[in-house]
User: Fold these one by one.
Assistant:
Number 1:
Amino acid sequence: MRPLRYSINVTLDGCCHHEAGLPPDEESMRYWTTEMERADALLFGRVTYEMMESAWRKPATGTWPDWMDEWEIPFAEAIDRAKKYVVSSTLSGVDWNAELVRGDVGQAVQRLKQESGEGLWVGGVTLPLALADLGLIDEYEFLVQPVLAGHGPTLLAGLRERIQLDPVDRHEFRSGAVAQRYRPTRVTA
């Protein structure tokens, strides 16, 4: 069974809008590239899929755009080639090495988790909330940015029940950001 990891950038006040934190730098992009490469497949909701595709899909020319710095290319290549599953009831189809997931999201993700491999990676806001409520997330990873956003969507807002987490790993960046990894506490009888 492969674990489902939820990873996201978040500000100190819990904002998880993709533009609220620090701009990506070489160190954080290397970190995210490594995390992306640890996954057998990526799991996105429609909004995150469309946002990632617009930013990181390799152009038909086969050449990365001029706006992209050299140190961003390994991340772009990792996400571009990754297998993707997209949970959506509104999209009629997907491409970019992606497969559409419809129906009961809990059952679909449980089936994906039961396949062999290193793990699945989920990002975004809405889908991870649903998966957390279903108890399907095996690891939480937050790249906490030293920023107070003061507005925007907050991390796992609306979670139905409290989830106790055990710390697993911590990594500090030169920028002041801190990657923190946790696993849900498993209750033993």
Note: The longest helix spans residues 26-37.
Number 2:
Amino acid sequence: MSPESARPVRLPRETFASMVLDRLREDIINGTLAAGTQLSEVELATSFGVSRGPIREAIQRLIQEGLLRGEPHRRVSVPVLTKQDIADIYLARTALESAAVQSIIASGKSEETFKELDRNVRAEAAAEAAGDWQVAREYDLEFHTILVAASGSQRLQRMFSTVISETRLCMGALTTEEARHHHKVQSPDEVNHRKISELIRDGDTAGALAALRKHFDDAVATLTSRDGEQKQAPPAG
């Protein structure tokens, strides 16, 4: 073996930052890092076995996504979302997704979009029937991602990527039983994803927008009906 081949492979700094980013994002979304948990660059660097540079890059990206909150001269922390925060997140989603619906129908992409949404709806229904609420939640969020992507607007998609991350933060705070209830309340026959997709297919802009608003109103009602707001975790370290 030549000296060159014996040298350890050095991963680029960007790769380390991406790995840290993905892990932290997942830990925040699934609740491993609870609301209120404070993070330290030094502790994270030690935990991941990397320098503070990749940690800092990952943290800044998560702050931009709304999954971490930073204050001057203080550690960053996982946000404790209030009922007002939740309502505001869904207000933004209503504006963004309503614009996407209008764009889809106006551009004549209703049938094409319906086919993609319908595949998602069928998969979500199968997950719900199997009682797999974690998978059902992923299909729920994917439905809306497909909807915005179908608009073809890069700017809508960039804005949506932030609020959908914050939505994941809301959903990550739900227990299994609450997640089950959330899906049942959020998806009655008259306002479920299938109804929205069918109204888009039919080119019914007013109907699709009304169904979307009702869908989000139900979501906000469920997410804000919990006893109190997200409980704050004790400071780390």
Note: Residues 1-11, 187-191, 227-237 have pLDDT under 50 and may be disordered.
Number 3:
Amino acid sequence: MRSIVRDTATAQEVQRLRAQMAQIQGRKLDAPPLPTHPALAELLPGGGLRPGSSYAIGGSMSLLFGLLAQPSQTGSWCGVVGMPGFGAEAAEKAGVDLSHLVLIPEPGPRWLAVTATIADVLPVVAVRPPSRAKDAEVSRLAARMRERGVVLLVQGPWPQTEAMIDVTDARWSGLGDGYGVLSDRELTVTVTSRRFPVPRSSRMLLPAPDGALAVREQPMAPVVELPMRAVS
């Protein structure tokens, strides 16, 4: 059944309808985004990770760490499903609070059911699908996420996403001519969304020398020395 709001509907009626829809969905329609690093928040639609939404992200673990860091630091529990190569030490150095992290490295063939179960209790869930899920299963998971207000981060392609986040043009620093230690990696983070007319991109350090995410500072303009004129 479809509800029709006439042009003469009052603001109070609209608010009443919004409240009813919020009760049905189990969350507020205007729920604020989860805390997100400012550099990433500037690129994401709505200024952060929106509860009840899914995001397709690239295979960079550093990118995943950067997305999990702020929510975990502010008390949101995060689950990581199907990523046996997830490095807890590297994640902690990147700012992820391990005391608010649940790891399920090998969920088995029922990975989607495991993800849905985790989404019932944790506000942020990251998963790497080992196989393509059926459309009906994806729709059921999306409905559960909306009901619970869960953010889903999927490494790989995924339908019905709020945005796609990926990194390109990575360049490591710290190595000289056959010597040195890798200190940081400069790369471009690009967010593509149906809400944007064009993708949004920004240059960042991921990881920065301290292991976390940092904004790429613009290099200072070179100082040009002018020839001195002889004083008579």
Note: The helical segments are 11-25, 38-41, 61-73, 88-93, 111-119, 135-148.
